[in-house]
Amino acid sequence: MARAPAGSSRPPGSAAAARAAGTQRPPGKPGRRSAPAQGGTADRILDAALASFGARGYEATSLDALAEGLGVRKQSILYWFPSKEVLLEALIDRSAGELAAALEGSLAGAGSGWSRVEAVVRSVFRLAARRPELLGLLREVGRLGPPSATRLMLVLEPLVQRASEFLEHEMDAGHMRRHEPRLLLLAIYSTVVGMITEVEVLRALGEEPTARSLVRRRQEILRLLRSALLVDDGPPHASGVSAPVADPQADGAGGRGRGGLGGV
User: Fold this and answer.
1) Predicted structure pTM score
2) Residue 154 has what pLDDT?
């Protein structure tokens, strides 16, 4: 394993890791060295690992293969990330931070009630269109289970807590059917991520993973969730979920969703 010169190692929870993932590394975990500015070696390694872990899987990816693809020596990877496990941890932190930022951004322009659920679902589908490797990593982390899945949930816990409180409030107000909030969130998460990332299953069902089919799948997920959650489900057009299939280009980050959500 490559070692940095004496005195060059920095403690876990470096500023670069916090900036990339939006969170501090849990104490007691072996950390990576402080990364340089955006586009530096550590970021290139994380980008390559994201693409490979998300597409091929964690176990199927070797550090040797990553190094070869990057055109660097394996020791260069081990300088920044002392092991493959530490590399995965840093990648989970950064990816969870990116996901949390996308969800926070979608909620900033959302209204209340059902429109907030719709805003989150639309945000995840937009992220899938722009960054499919990120959703692939989330699927892989869920498949790996603890401790990787636990780490992801710890980073996302503030969002999960807020979402649980929102659902509880909507249920108490009689707007949504009564469910256990955290189990409901898990079901929604599994359904949305599975609908986006399980490409081979979709193909077996005759659904090719195209941009247009992604829009159609988003609409179907919204219909399903609206029907399952809302107590008094109004006209289908109220949230725009039964509108004709939209142009995928118009539904990107700069598009405007229906229902007055402003960019969602």
Assistant:
1) 0.70
2) 92
